[in-house]
Design goal:
Blueprint lengths: L1 H48 L61 E2 L24 E4 L2 E2 L5 E2 L10 H5 L9 E6 L4 E5 H4 L7 H4 L4
């Protein structure tokens, strides 16, 4: 009887394990979407408070910095260690992300599109310069350093060095990347849509080129 019971349990576990694994992955993807929506809202609140001007290319900074203002205080985040809304639950953050950039103690994996910032050669400075905000990817699941380790500051920087940035992008949700667009909506995006070669891509530039 014990052997039969054990066999039945083993069969049930074989059926249930994929279901439980899938449910767990779905829960992590849902949490990622929630994180991205919160970052998108914080970004848009900053922009609204600054007459449409984007924050800098270092969004982890607080908005009070005069040289590179960010959105950290708009997220309501405190200087706590461990996963935060800056971290995709499917990705392992590089430990340096908790010690760099003012030693904010945040582990970070998400990546912001450098087209939507106010202090780089590629930045469009103001949201009014983006004709199609619902098409422009603002923040997404993350990218990797050249050595393969996860990192969040390898921004997309335009056609001059597109290849060496795009090939680091990660697709942790069943070969999709969750993306928050400049209008605030979030959706899963395929590898093919993100790895576009068109230097005027709506996905990366929102019609601003």
């Amino acid at each position: 009887m014990v052997v039969v019971t054990a066999a039945i349990v083993a069969v049930l576990m074989a059926f249930l394990f994929p279901v439980l694994t899938g449910a767990s992955a779905s829960a992590r993807a849902t949490r990622c979407v929630s994180n991205l929506k919160q970052l998108g809202i914080a970004f848009l609140l900053y922009t609204a408070d600054h007459n449409g001007k984007f924050p800098s290319d270092t969004p982890i900074y607080p908005s009070t910095r005069t040289d590179r203002p960010g959105i950290r205080d708009y997220t309501g985040a405190t200087a706590a260690k461990g996963p935060t809304i800056w971290t995709c639950p499917e990705l392992q953050a590089h430990p340096e992300t908790a010690t760099s950039y003012e030693k904010s103690s945040f582990l970070k994996t998400y990546t912001f599109n450098r087209a939507a910032n106010s202090n780089s050669t590629d930045g469009r400075i103001f949201i009014q310069r983006i004709p199609l905000p619902a098409e422009l990817a603002l923040v997404f699941d993350g990218s990797r350093m050249p050595d393969g380790s996860p990192w969040n500051h390898a921004y997309h920087e335009g056609s001059t060095n597109r290849a060496n940035v795009l090939d680091r992008l990660q697709f942790p949700h069943q070969e999709h990347s969750n993306v928050c667009f400049l209008d605030g909506h979030v959706e899963p995006v395929t590898r093919e849509r993100m790895l576009v070669s068109d230097p005027k891509s709506l996905f990366w530039w929102g019609g601003s080129k």
